[in-house]
């Protein structure tokens, strides 16, 4: 792979209106972006979604990606957060309802939901949510509790169901991304729509980290890092830009070796930062894959990473390490040309 092709593997771009349009085809060809994500809710059904996914995979040419195929990702948690529906997809209950099931039952259901995703060409689910919302505080927790995205209100329940969901999806051949490390269950604002979201409670050894530990032990291939600030961990940086959170807690403390993926770096929480700075800071902190739905900032980010790699041998080595983490995950999914 050329350096530009390697850098492209670090980006997951959004499909506008859940279609692969001419601008995205051009961006994949020119900037070698290696993964895509659905960006809205559609009810067109699995067959139509499969057509889009197949069109995406057809872009994995030698010139564009050196033949490396794409992660095609979706937010398919259940309840209000079920992006794909229609013929071929069951209606998934909310995570809070899923948490009332026995873990073995949830695993079986997740395997069935995963098979439906695979039939639609989806190979990565941005789930499960490992955030724990304290009992009685759902109404005050905009990103998780208000939407019933948590499996429960205690770390033990969430831990067991996170592991079950990951195992079920893995049975179906779908990769998962646990989120939102180190937790959004005790914040007020939603980082998608609000800046300066702060957690003043979570510590480096917090009991509410247990579901993420469970996910790592279950072999989750992706961990999504939040865009909140954790005052008792690193008050100077958002988690996605914190070496303490990513390199220290996630890599060192938890021994995680998979892909560290950002929450959307187009969110309101980071909108005031230049796109290139967002990308550089995330990768420098230990991150591997950037979610960015909009093409213009994605292109600016890829250009900034290329400049940073050319100027610093240390940053170039970090980029190559991140690419290797992504390619290992793709190898596990059979997405490399030699697979």
Structure in words:
By secondary structure, this protein is of the alpha/beta class. The chain has a single domain (3-332), classed as TIM Barrel (Alpha-Beta Barrel), CATH 3.20.20.300. It has helices at residues 3-8, 22-31, 46-57, 62-65, 95-98, 103-119, 155-171, 210-217, 243-253, 275-284, 295-311, 313-332; strands spanning 11-15, 35-38, 71-74, 76-78, 81-82, 124-125, 175-181, 198-199, 222-225, 229-230, 234-238, 259-262, 290-292. An eight-stranded parallel β-sheet has the order 12-9-7-6-3-2-1-13. It has a three-stranded mixed β-sheet with strand order 8-10-11, with no helix packed on it. A hairpin with a 3-residue loop joins strand 10 (229-230) and strand 11. Helix 10 (275-284) packs across helix 11 (295-311).
